[in-house]
Each structure stands twice: as C-alpha cells, then as structure tokens.
C-alpha cells in the first residue's frame, strides 16, 4: 500500500500535478523540509533585523516603550557625537592594517608549507593551533607578551638595543598590537590557501618552466591567478570580520576604548551605547548597527564588482 | 544531595552535603543557635508571615564568602516557609531583559551607584512604605549609604556593605627614601606628589615601583575634586559642573604628580603588570589610594608583616586634623517593580540587616579566616551599629597598622560623601565621560586639564539633557 502511495506521489510530482494550494507534492515536501530553518530564520534573524531598523528611528531603553524620533539618532551620530567618527576611523585603520597583513602572512606560510618536504603535518598543525585558541585567551596572552614595561617582546627588543614601543599604552601602537594578535591566528586562511595551492595543476608550472619562467614569474603568472578565487573569498570575509572587530579590543583594553580611545571600534561603541551601565540606548545602538551594515554592504558590493577584473575561475575558461 | 532549602543557580556553587560538613566550624555551630534570636531581632514588629518562593539575584554565597553564606543559611532556618533561590551573579543585560519581560526577581543586590539609573527607568520600587509600616530604623546606617540609596526623595535600597578610600603608605619604602613616616600630613597634596617622585624605583629602563598612585585614572577623580573644594553636579543632578575651577586645579595637580614620576604612559606600562590588587602588598607601589578591603585581602594574605599605615585623605591645605575626604560605594538591597513576592523580599532584607545576623556572619568569617591562617578584619556593613559590634566583640588586635586602620575606617565613613553624579540616571555615562574625556586626555598630555574638563563638561551636559 505504502509503496503504491509513494509511487503515486512520485508520478504526481513528475507530471507536475498540483495540490489545492497550487504546489506539487514534491515542492510541498521541500518547503516542509526547510520549514524549521525558515521559522528559525524568521524569528531569530529576519525579525530582529527589521526590528533593529525600526528601533534605530526611536529612543528605546528596552524597559519602556520606544518613542519615535525619526532621524534624530542618525543626525546625532554624524553631527553631535565625537566618539562615533573616531570609532569609524579606528575601525578602518585597523582593517587597512589587518587585511593585507593577514592575507600576506597566511599566503606566505601556506607557500612555505606547500614546499615543505618533511614534517608538513606538524608545521601545519603548529600554524593552525592559534586559531583554535579562544579569542579571550589569545588577547590576554598578547597583553602579556606586548607589555611595555616587562613583556617578552620588549625585553627582547631591549636586549637587542632596539626601541621598545609602549604597545598597549601608546595610542599609536594600540591598533598594531591588536593586528599582531589577530594575524597570529591565521590558521584558517592558511589552510584555505594551502588547499588552493595544492589544487594548482602541475602541468601549468611545467609549461611555464619550459617557456623559461623563473620562480617569481611562475608565482605571479600561474600561482596568483589560480588561487585568486580563494584570495577573493578571504579578502571579503576578512574585511567583514575586521570591520566587526570587538573581542580583542574589548578584552585587551578592559572593556574600554584603550588609551585616548585609540582602540574604540564601531562594535565596541555600539555595545557600550546599548548595554553600558547608565546608557541602555538601544535605538542609538541600532542606528550604529545599521550604519555599519550599510558600510559593509557597500564595500562588499564594490569588492564583487572589482573582482571581475582580477579573479579567475577555472570553469569559466580563460 | 542539595541542601533542601537553598537552591543556588550556578552548578559550581551548589551546596552539597559534604560541603556542608566541611564548612567552617563556627558557621555551622552559630547557624543552629542564632536563627530564633535573629528572627526576633530582624522582624521588629508584627509583619505578614513570609512564605513562598523568594528569588534573589546577585548575592555571592560561595564557601569563600562565609559572611554571606552563613547569613543566608540562617535566614532559611528562621523562615522555613520561604523557598529561597539565590542566583549569585547577574549583569545589566540580564536585569534589563528581565525588566522588559516582567520576569524580575524579588530582591536584587546592586551597586548603590546605580540607584538612579534603575529607579528613573522604573525598574525599582520605593521601599518607603515598608520602612514606615515596620518602623524600620534607617538611622543605623551611614548617611552616605542612605543618600546613595535614595532617588527623588524616595528610599529605594537598604545598604548592605560599604567601601571607602584612604591612603596606604609603605613605611619601609618611605624610610629607605629618607622620608619621615611618623608625621605625614595628607592635606599637603604637594608633599604627597614630592614623595611620589622620590619613591619611584627603576632597574635600568624597567620601572619596578611607582611612588604615589592617586588613582584619578581609575575613576577616583571625584575624591580629589571634592577634596579640593570642587563639585561635579548641582543638587538636583540637572547641571554638570565638571569644569569647576577647583576641579581643574585638582586635575592639574594629579597630572603633575604623575609627570614627576615619569608620566602616565610609564605608569600604565607598569600597572598592566599588577595582578590581583596586590601591587601595594608586593611593593610595586609605595603610596596608593585604595579601598579598605585591600587590607583584609591582599595585605593580610600576601604581606601580613608589612610595615604600613593607613591615613585618610584630608581636604587640601586643611592641616593634619582637617576634614577627611573620601567617597563610598557598595551595594544595597532592592526590590524590583513587579516582584512576585515583595513581602518575603522585605523580610529577607530586614533579616540580613539585624545586628544579630551581622554578628553571625562575622563569627563565621572569623572562624573561616582562622582556618585559613589569616587574621579576622571586620567588614564594613553600611550599618554603624554592626560595624561597631564587630570591632567591640569580635576583632582581636593583630598589629599596630591593622588595629589603627580598623578603627579609622568607620570614622572616615561618618564623613564620607558619595559620587555626586550618582544622583543622575545617566551616572554610568557621566563616569565614562569623566574618565575618557576629562582625566585620561589630561594625564596623557593630549589636552590641558582645563580643556579636557571643558570638553567633558559639555559631553556630560549633553548626556544629561538627552536622557
């Protein structure tokens, strides 16, 4: 009996028979299968997303009902708030330092590992390990390593008679401090680069060598184009991640923006406005979130546009 | 098996039967004899019998805190019809969402500094009615604690602990630097600053000891501003006066004091190596402003034989017997609006404040410390009578510096003030503004003290106006 029913359904689906809701059985089954995810998305992502847009036009402390204030929060952010432009500036400077360094460092390590003949697994694990370390633990580790007075790095620099920067307390050095600690956690990017490098067909290198290409030429004309897809992916996600930087700054500088607010990033500022004692400005924080979202959106769209000029996908032919 | 009467929320803090047996001897013995006595003392008049579930947030009852633990246990014995659930820790986000979703606890243990913050947003209920109904005597509390628990003329909280700030001097360090530690005048702020520069110690380029830490960067500027005769707000908390000339003068002094010792950046580099509030006990700072608990904690633990003295900050230029200056903080008990069992919460709060309950807690603490091989140092309870009771009946002299300081702290409390900004519903913002826009740029040399405080004042006024 059951088999007959199933066969009928398959037949109905194949013949495109529609139910009274205008959906084929197969389509309906598909919707049912993804329904849990859809419900979850609607409740936990779509609704809060839209709600935060609404709250961004209100004065709202969570406890009392929101009051509509139109564009006041946005206007205030750009005309009245001294810390918000600083937070944007800090975040972008951080991203400009972090993203290229992160990509270069992880690609360099991947290239070295790709060439390694012995103990490749050991090195791969060693370089990957930091990304398994919890972000908070990493932050504390680097606070100690880079302690200006007595940290391991400055001790070494002094021993070498080199200048020892005041990493965590000099506003000039706070962002590089966070960048160093983040670049150290390059494991995931390195693994992706390594996979991409191992996927480059050997015959391309052989052909290039026959044509007289040296090491650098092979890297520039074969390796880089062949891994450009992964590079683009990593560039995109690292830019998004760096504009959302929070944990390192929050932990390293004790929930504050560091010396002279030099490590006050957009998300940290948002968090402070939303949840800081005596703040509870959810409307204002929502406006910050939306501005950040729009900035990320614009940057990502630009990246996708520009990618057509330099990203090569093998299946597109060439 | 869990204790039948107390349910602690965090799994790690569950009170097991084995834990009960292993608990300090005095906590166990006193808990059996005292509840009946305390109940009569705590419940002063005929009040409705408390029963049902009582949910409390924020009161730490770990084994390492016998003062709290023994009192909570005693409450349960005295009120067997109340099922007490203690959620040891919570944060602002949790209280915020609880208030928004009407799932607040019955009692909360909260920093008094946040009284206006939560009361103005309608999260707390005034306790005036309970106080009047039971003729609850609030005169036993220090004025500063009661004032800080009050907002808009209504009492919202009952103080249950206090902290107070004073200057700690390492006398051996002073002697080494050729400074006479027997006649220190803490109203002579320039002398403090001079001592600081003499006491700094370096090993090559590496700073080993800071001389004098006034801690203005650690949200203590209020004390020095007040001590110089300055004010930070008007009485009804509607106008910021951060850039009051006296405050500017105090900040100029604070900047010079750090600069004379090597500057703020050098200080920060050293301070980031300090751990567990032990810098004074470990000789990493010679003179420091600090809360009283540094004595019962780090000093008693790390350096019980230390040669030190605790002196109050005195109003600038007022002389050796001039006005003591400090500000106090600490927690109070509150009942949130919408609490399901406010009567039981009130009984709990009253019970926790009777002298007999405090005595019970102090005895448990003393026994616990004895077990740990550490001296007993009285806690500051917020209640004048309970503080005195601990000194008179339980404290056993340890050594000169400890004995003098134990007597000194209640005297400072009698004259202490609160942070004036605590009266504002945006107190937390104002504190950040002073630290980030006022004090920090001045210390780092980014702005002149006058400019920094002008900017801070403008930001503070903006925060007040936009509430």
Structural account:
The complex is a heterodimer of chains A (318) and B (467). Chain A has 318 residues and is an all-alpha fold. Chain A has helices at 2-14, 25-55, 72-79, 83-115, 120-132, 135-145, 152-159, 171-183, 187-198, 202-210, 215-226, 228-243, 247-252, 266-275, 282-310; strands at 58-59, 67-68. Chain A has two domains: 2-55, no CATH class; 76-316, MetI-like fold, CATH 1.10.3720. Chain A contains 15 helices and two strands. Chain A has a two-stranded antiparallel ribbon. In chain A, strand 1 and strand 2 (67-68) form a beta hairpin. The termini of chain A are far apart. Chain B has two domains: 6-162 and 330-394, D-Maltodextrin-Binding Protein, domain 2; 164-327 and 402-465, D-Maltodextrin-Binding Protein, domain 2, CATH 3.40.190. The N and C termini of chain B lie far apart (49 Å). In chain B, a hairpin with a 2-residue loop joins strand 5 (150-151) and strand 6 (154-155). Chain B has 20 helices and 16 strands. In chain B, the strands form four sheets. A six-stranded mixed beta sheet of chain B has the order 1-3-2-4-16-7. In chain B, strands 8, 9, 10, 11, 12 and 15 form a six-stranded mixed beta sheet that branches. At the A-B interface, loops of A face helix 5, helix 13 and helix 19 of B.
Provide key terms for this protein.
heterodimer; A: 318 residues; mainly alpha; MetI-like fold; 2 domains; 15 helices; 2 strands; 70% helix; 1% strand; B: 467 residues; alpha/beta; D-Maltodextrin-Binding Protein, domain 2; six-stranded mixed β-sheet; 20 helices; 16 strands; 14% strand; globular; disordered N terminus
């Amino acid at each position: 009996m059951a088999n007959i029913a199933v066969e009928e359904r398959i037949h109905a689906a194949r013949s495109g028979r529609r139910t009274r809701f205008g959906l084929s059985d197969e389509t309906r089954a598909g919707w049912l299968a993804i329904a849990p995810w859809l419900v979850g998305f609607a409740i936990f992502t779509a609704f809060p997303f839209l709600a935060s847009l609404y709250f961004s036009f209100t004065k709202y402390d969570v406890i009392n009902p929101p009051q509509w204030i139109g564009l006041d929060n946005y206007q205030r952010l750009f005309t009245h708030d001294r810390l918000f432009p600083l937070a944007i500036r800090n975040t972008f400077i951080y991203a400009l330092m972090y993203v290229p360094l992160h990509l270069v460092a992880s690609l360099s390590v991947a290239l070295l590992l790709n060439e390694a003949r012995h103990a490749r697994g050991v090195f791969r694990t060693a370089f990957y390990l930091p990304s398994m370390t919890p972000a908070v633990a990493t932050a504390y580790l680097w606070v100690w390593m880079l302690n200006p007075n007595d940290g391991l790095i400055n001790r070494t620099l002094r021993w070498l008679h080199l200048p020892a920067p005041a990493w965590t307390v000099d506003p000039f050095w706070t962002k590089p401090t966070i960048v160093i600690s983040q670049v150290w956690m390059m494991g995931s990017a390195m693994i992706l680069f390594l996979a991409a490098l191992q996927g480059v067909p050997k015959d391309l290198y052989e052909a290039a060598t026959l044509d007289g290409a040296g090491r650098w030429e092979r890297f520039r004309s074969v390796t880089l184009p062949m891994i450009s897809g992964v590079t683009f992916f990593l560039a995109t996600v690292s830019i998004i991640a760096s504009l959302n930087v929070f944990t390192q700054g929050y932990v390293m500088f004790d929930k504050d923006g560091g010396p002279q607010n030099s490590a006050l990033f957009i998300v940290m500022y948002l968090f402070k406005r939303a949840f800081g004692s005596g703040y509870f400005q959810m409307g204002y924080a929502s406006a910050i979130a939306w501005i950040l979202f729009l900035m990320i959106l614009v940057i990502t769209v630009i990246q996708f546009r520009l990618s057509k000029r330099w990203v090569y996908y093998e299946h597109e032919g060439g | 098996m869990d204790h039948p009467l107390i349910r602690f929320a965090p799994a790690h803090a569950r009170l097991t039967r084995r834990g009960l047996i292993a608990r300090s001897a005095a906590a166990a013995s006193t808990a059996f004899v005292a509840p009946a006595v305390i109940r009569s003392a705590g419940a002063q008049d005929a009040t409705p019998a408390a029963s049902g579930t009582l949910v409390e947030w924020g009161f730490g009852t770990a084994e390492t805190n016998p003062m709290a633990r023994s009192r909570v246990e005693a409450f349960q014995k005295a009120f067997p019809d109340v099922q007490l659930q203690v959620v040891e820790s919570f944060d602002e986000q949790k209280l915020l969402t609880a208030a928004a979703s009407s799932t607040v606890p019955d009692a909360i243990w909260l920093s008094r500094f946040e009284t206006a913050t939560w009361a103005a947003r309608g999260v707390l209920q005034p306790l005036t009615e309970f106080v009047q109904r039971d003729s609850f005597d609030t005169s036993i509390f220090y004025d500063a604690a009661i004032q800080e628990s009050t907002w808009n003329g209504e009492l919202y909280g009952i103080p249950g602990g206090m902290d107070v700030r004073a200057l700690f001097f390492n006398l051996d360090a002073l002697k080494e630097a050729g400074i006479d530690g027997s006649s220190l005048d803490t109203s002579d702020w320039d002398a403090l600053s001079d001592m600081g520069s003499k006491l700094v110690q370096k090993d090559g380029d590496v700073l080993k000891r800071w001389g004098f830490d006034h801690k203005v960067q650690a949200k203590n500027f209020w004390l020095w501003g007040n001590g110089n005769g300055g004010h930070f707000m008007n009485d009804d908390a509607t106008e910021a006066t951060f850039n009051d000339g006296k405050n500017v003068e105090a900040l100029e002094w604070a900047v010079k004091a750090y600069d004379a010792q090597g500057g703020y950046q050098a200080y920060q580099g050293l301070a980031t190596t300090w751990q567990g509030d032990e810098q004074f006990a470990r000789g990493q700072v010679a003179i420091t402003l600090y809360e009283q608990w540094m004595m019962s904690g780090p000093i008693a633990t790390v350096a019980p034989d230390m040669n030190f003295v605790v002196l109050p900050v005195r109003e600038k230029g007022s002389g050796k017997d001039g006005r003591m200056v400090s500000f106090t903080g600490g927690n109070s008990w509150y009942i949130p609006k919408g609490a399901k069992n406010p009567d039981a919460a009130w009984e709990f709060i009253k019970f926790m404040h009777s002298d007999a309950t405090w005595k019970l807690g102090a005895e448990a603490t003393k026994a616990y410390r004895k077990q740990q091989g550490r001296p007993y140092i009285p806690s500051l309870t917020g209640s004048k009578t309970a503080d005195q009771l601990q000194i008179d009946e339980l404290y056993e002299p340890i050594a000169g510096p400890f004995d003098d300081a134990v007597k000194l702290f209640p005297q400072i409390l009698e004259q202490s003030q609160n942070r004036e900004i605590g009266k504002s519903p945006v107190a937390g913002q104002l504190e950040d503004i002073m630290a980030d826009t006022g004090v920090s740029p001045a210390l780092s040399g980014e702005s002149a003290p006058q400019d920094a405080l002008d900017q801070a004042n403008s930001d503070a006024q903006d925060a007040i106006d936009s509430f």
